Amino acid sequence: MESHYATQVDPERPNNSHSFVVQLVGSGKRVLELGAASGYVSEVLRSRGNHVTAVEYDATCAEELASRADEVLITDLDWLTFVNDLRGKTFDVIVAGDVLEHTTRADLILRQLRYLLAPNGYVVVTLPHIAHGDVRLALLDGRFPYSDTGLLDRTHLRFFTRELVREFFVSNGFEIGEMYGTTAPLGTTELGIDLTTYPSEIVRTIMEAPDSDVYQFVVKALPAELLPGHPSLDDSSQPVPTSPESLVSELVALRQTLTDTQNEARLLRNSLARLEDENRTLQAEGLHSRDSYLGVLAELGEYKARVLVAEKNREETMTRLVNEMTRAYTAETRLAEVEDERRKAILVRQELKSIYNSRTWRVGRLATAPVRAIKKLLS
């Protein structure tokens, strides 16, 4: 049963998403934290006896993270390679605090988390609430004031209401076990809304609307019961679809190729800048050494050509990368369809089994036995 969201006056549920996360994770677990940043949450989870693996995009956080988590993985979640990077590892809890709304492929990321969960494992996710009363009042003024943090963080790519949160989890193979909300009264968020500038009737109407003061949703979700690989699925006779490993491997290789090409282009641009400076110096000195000047011009031309080749390779690699990511997305979509078809087939088999074992079916078979015998003789 889904829980009601918390309020500030509830001493058991602090009005802070990080506190919710810590409470929902508990202690003594294998924890994977996505988007760990500098590791402030990882450090708290670790202090409670959890073994924490931290995943972060920003490589500059690696050293600080290493001192606060047990293991560190630097990768971009949007590359969809983290499951392959963590191959062979499973986790009791996967935490994604204020991270999925920043990704371009949130659905596929959430769907892939199932392959990293241990039996009885679950995810803890926090998501911003786009329908907070302050956002509604800003929209009445025709404004959508992006900022560096908060509800309208300019790097948010997905927006959520309570209903969209439910849809997000259910459509990607999870069931919501618990759902809470941190609150912020109207006029107290970073949007700087002045309630006195709005008609009192409008303010009152928005205040009375459901979830108008909810700032963030905090969700504990478990894999849906009939998902392949879930411990409650007792029919092991059917093959379990797996992630298309060949696509994942190819994406990893392409990412490395792109990184190498970008590094090469950067080095070439640095060399080009140095040669151009040397060229300007020689011109300023009146070209006392014509041979040296001609040599610089030749080397300059060579580096310019190499930069053009490197840039062309980078563009071609990016094009290939987009194509492969599209293929991966198509494969993941088909995988979801196969899982859904398999779930329906299991339900049909269960219904048929129930019918075959029913007294009505056995009596019916007995009653029609003479008719079937006659039909067999006539045929």
Structure report:
There is one protein chain. The chain is of the alpha/beta class. It has two domains: 17-223, Rossmann fold (3-Layer(aba) Sandwich), CATH 3.40.50; 245-356. 49% of the residues lie in helices and 14% in strands. It is built from twelve helices and seven strands. The protein has helices spanning 17-25, 40-47, 62-66, 82-85, 106-112, 133-140, 162-170, 200-208, 245-284, 290-356, 359-367, 369-378, and strands at 30-34, 51-56, 71-74, 91-97, 117-128, 174-183, 214-223. The chain has a seven-stranded mixed beta sheet, with helices on both faces. The two termini are 57 Å apart. Residues 1-11 and 226-243 have low confidence and may be disordered.
Shape: extended
Structural class: alpha/beta
Low-confidence stretches: 1-11, 226-243
User: N-to-C terminal Cα separation, in Å?
Assistant: 57 Å
CATH fold category name of the largest domain? Rossmann fold
Query: Please, how many helices?
Result: 12
Compressed to H and E, one letter per element, the order equals: HEHEHEHEHEHHEHEHHHH
DSSP summary, beta strand count: 7
Structurally, the number of domains stands at 2
Quick rundown:
It is built from twelve helices and seven strands. With 379 residues, it is of the alpha/beta class.
SSE blueprint:
Blueprint: H1 17-25, E1 30-34, H2 40-47, E2 51-56, H3 62-66, E3 71-74, H4 82-85, E4 91-97, H5 106-112, E5 117-128, H6 133-140, H7 162-170, E6 174-183, H8 200-208, E7 214-223, H9 245-284, H10 290-356, H11 359-367, H12 369-378
Parallel strand pairs: 1-2, 1-4, 2-3, 4-5
Antiparallel strand pairs: 5-7, 6-7
Helix pairs in contact: 9-10
